[in-house]
Design a protein that fits this description.
10 helices, 4-stranded antiparallel β-sheet
């Protein structure tokens, strides 16, 4: 909104930006030290791919669009692509190839974190709810008694053999009546403790007694119930590998960068940027696990 606000925002993001730039420089330099480079033939293939993907007929057309839209020359593009390639190559060879997870480790993770791979208990119910309107001074006693009697009559009809869904469509005062009172499947943990206690006493097909709720008198019929069930290890094996591999990759990446930072000699041209970098790195280093 204002120049002062813009200046403040720039001050806030500068430390993180500078840290990211330095980390990239360290990886690029490491890649060059390891002998990686973007050869002429590789770059030619990349250019041909860009031309084909964007429908450019010639190198000249690509160069013209690159200059107009990105303000870059082809040599700038090559420099940028080489930096990206060097960073990727270092990550692949120096980090990714050193990270793995064995079958034993995957199964140990599965057994230790079994709750992550357990499908929750589910219930499906039907309900009839006879609402109790509030009087001018709170609950109307006569209305409460009338609703209780109507709920009792509705339950009697069901117990005498009438279809619960049809009775719900006729006697219920909540939106579920349009679906025959059907609720769920829903996770048991998402239901109030009071309802959970009622359901716990029911077998599939049982109908509860009318119970008083803040809205009125509610009757429940238990349609189905499933207990918590762990997913088979074979079905989640790949997810475990991906998650654990990702965590280990990030940890190794942080350790690798920390080593490069410690070995680097940085020639600062600006004390302000050096202070911003050091201020950003201090909490990062404190939060990082101690490497052996």
């Amino acid at each position: 909104a204002t120049d002062a606000e813009l200046a403040r925002m720039l001050r806030e993001i500068t430390p993180e930006v500078i840290a990211g730039v330095i980390d990239e420089l360290l990886l690029v330099q490491q890649g060059r030290d390891l002998g990686y480079s973007l050869g002429d033939e590789q770059f030619r293939d990349l250019l041909d791919g860009i031309k084909e993907e964007n429908g450019f007929a010639s190198d000249e057309e690509l160069a013209e669009v690159l200059q107009q839209q990105e303000g870059m020359r082809v040599t700038d593009l090559r420099r940028m692509m080489e930096r990206q390639m060097l960073v990727s190559q270092v990550q692949q060879v120096e980090i990714l190839q050193k990270v793995s997870i064995t079958e034993v480790e995957a199964r140990e993770f599965y057994e230790t974190n079994i709750e992550q791979f357990t499908d929750p208990a589910l219930v499906t119910m039907r309900e009839i709810l006879v609402a109790v309107p509030e009087g001018t001074a709170g609950v109307n006693i006569l209305a409460d008694r009338r609703a209780r009697d109507e709920a009792g009559s509705a339950r009697e009809r069901v117990m005498d053999g009438e279809d619960f869904g049809l009775v719900a469509a006729e006697a219920s005062d909540v939106a579920s009546k349009a679906n025959g009172g059907l609720i769920g499947p829903i996770e048991l943990s998402q239901i109030s403790e009071t309802i959970q206690e009622v359901i716990a006493e029911l077998e599939v097909g049982d109908v509860s007694e009318p119970m008083r709720t803040p809205q009125g008198y509610q009757i429940l019929r238990l349609e189905s119930r499933t207990e918590p069930a762990p997913q088979p290890f074979d079905e989640v094996r790949q997810d475990i590998s991906n998650n654990v591999f990702s965590d280990r990759r990030l940890a190794e990446y942080d350790k690798y960068l920390e080593r490069l930072r410690n070995e680097a000699v940085i020639d600062w041209k600006s004390d302000e940027l050096r202070q911003a970098y050091e201020t950003y790195q201090e909490p990062q280093a404190a939060a990082a696990p101690t490497s052996q």
